[in-house]
Give the backbone structure.
Amino acid sequence: EAVEYGLDAPFEVEYHDSVPSTNARARDLAASGAEDVVVLADEQTGGRGRLDREWSSPSGGVWLSLLFRPDVPMAQAPAFTLAAAVAATRAAREVGVDAGIKWPNDVLVESDGDERKLVGILTEMEGEADRTSWIIVGIGVNANVGPEDLPAEANPTSLSAELGAPVDRRVFTQRLLELFEELRQDPEAAVAEWREYATTLGKRVRVETPNGVVEGEAVDVEFPGGLVVDTGDERVTVSAGDCDHLR
Ligand code: BT5
């Protein structure tokens, strides 16, 4: 299925039929000084998740990376991951898929306690504490891909599987980029909006952080993206980690 990606985006768009990883390509572009570029591919042959996990990226998805250079301290960069999750969730809802966000970066479709992953987001950045050189937000949307083409153990879903028909990827991608463009102007507002779509808040969670496991009730998210967990004894803010919903 070929795509006409004549996008009218607030970013320059570099389109590939097939590329190892749009994030890797965006890193090369960052090294050569580019900014406000979107790398978009129909297929990735070496798509990556966090912690170097594999991201399955068959033809028919929306695999893209946004490269930009925001004028913020590096510590605020996580807010852009949350902004991307909000943009993807809103774009999915606009085509009729009832998506929600699991902290920090998974966009899921939930039904009867079953969580199916629709979108994954991988943010990379470089800079110094007080100055961000670049941020790359990689967004992988299972758009028109059959679940049989995705790793079953990940319990994935796609827009086409949820809707029973393919989406117009050009229209969907255009909307996703427009929404992200709007949200990235005001990261604090994006984090506030994240709460509206969160499936994590109010749940019991188990978060594996680089400093150990935190378990308790997820009560809030605070700028630039930390999850506030009430362990029963205290409130802990975790800024990174893998989060499981425990019911
Ligand atoms: C993520 O990692 O969810 C971030 C994925 C980011 C992908 C985008 S695509 C464009 C850009 N270019 C790249 O190379 N990457 C970005 P993480 O939370 O670590 O989740 C990875 C896990 O999700 C894997 O270990 C699998 O279990 C599962 N998984 C892999 N492919 C999947 C898919 N297409 N749909 C749903 N789950 C998947």
Notes: Residues 78-94 form the longest helix (17 residues).
